[in-house]
C-alpha cells in the first residue's frame, strides 16, 4: 500500500464543480477527496485543502461611492478543518478594484450593479509549495495526489519527483479543461475523476 496525501487547490476544484453542475459544499469536497484515493492500493494519510476565507471588510462602491460591508465568514472552512484527515491551509483575499460584469455600452448610465469586486488570492500557492517540499523532505508519503491546473507548482513537483515521491494529477471529464502539457510533463500518473 502506498501512503498518500491529497492536495486540493480549492479555486480549481470550485471551477470544475461549477462547470460540471455540482453543488460545492463540504460534503462534496470530502466525498471528492476520498474518491481520488484508490482504497485497494493507497493508504490515505491526509487531505490538504487550500483556500481563502471570504473577504471581510468595507469597500467603497464604484458609482454611488457608498460603503458596503462584506462580512467574511469562515464557518465553512472551520467545519471542513474539523473533518477527518483534513488540514485546511488559508491564504487571504486582497481587493484589487472593480470590474464590469459585462461589456458596458458607453452611452448607458452605469450603476453599482454593473460592477463586481475583483479579488485575488494571496499566499495559497506558497502554502501548497511549502507543503509539497515538506512532504518530500520528511518522506511521510509515497505519493502526492494533486488537484490543480496551476503550472506555478512545476518546480515543486520536479523537486518532489527527484526526491523519489510519485505525483498523481487528478483530471476532470469535459467540459472542464484538461491538464496543460507543461503540468502533465511533471506528474507520474493522471487519473480522471468520475462523477458517481
TrEMBL record:
Q: Which Pfam families match?
A: NYN
Which part of the chain is the NYN domain?
A: 119-175
Superkingdom: Bacteria
Instruction: Write out the GO MF terms.
Output: RNA nuclease activity
**What protein name is recorded for this chain?**
NYN domain-containing protein
What species does this protein belong to? Magnetospirillum gryphiswaldense (strain DSM 6361 / JCM 21280 / NBRC 15271 / MSR-1)
Amino acid at each position: 500500500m502506498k501512503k498518500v496525501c491529497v492536495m486540493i487547490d480549492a479555486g480549481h476544484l470550485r471551477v470544475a464543480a461549477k462547470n460540471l453542475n455540482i453543488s460545492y459544499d463540504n460534503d462534496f469536497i470530502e466525498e471528492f477527496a476520498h474518491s481520488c484515493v484508490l482504497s485497494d492500493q493507497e493508504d490515505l494519510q491526509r487531505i490538504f485543502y487550500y483556500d481563502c476565507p471570504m473577504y471581510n471588510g468595507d469597500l467603497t462602491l464604484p458609482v454611488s461611492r457608498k460603503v458596503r460591508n462584506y462580512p467574511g465568514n469562515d464557518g465553512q472552512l472551520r467545519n471542513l478543518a474539523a473533518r477527518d484527515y483534513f488540514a485546511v491551509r488559508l491564504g487571504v483575499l486582497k481587493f484589487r478594484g472593480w470590474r464590469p460584469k459585462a461589456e458596458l455600452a458607453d452611452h448607458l448610465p452605469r450603476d453599482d450593479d454593473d460592477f463586481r469586486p475583483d479579488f485575488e488570492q494571496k499566499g495559497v500557492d506558497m502554502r501548497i509549495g511549502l507543503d509539497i517540499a515538506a512532504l518530500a523532505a520528511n518522506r511521510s508519503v509515497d505519493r502526492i495526489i494533486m488537484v490543480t491546473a496551476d503550472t506555478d507548482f512545476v518546480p515543486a513537483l520536479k523537486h518532489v519527483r527527484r526526491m523519489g515521491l510519485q505525483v498523481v494529477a487528478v483530471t476532470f471529464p469535459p467540459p472542464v479543461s484538461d491538464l496543460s502539457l507543461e503540468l502533465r510533463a511533471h506528474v507520474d500518473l493522471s487519473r480522471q475523476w468520475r462523477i458517481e
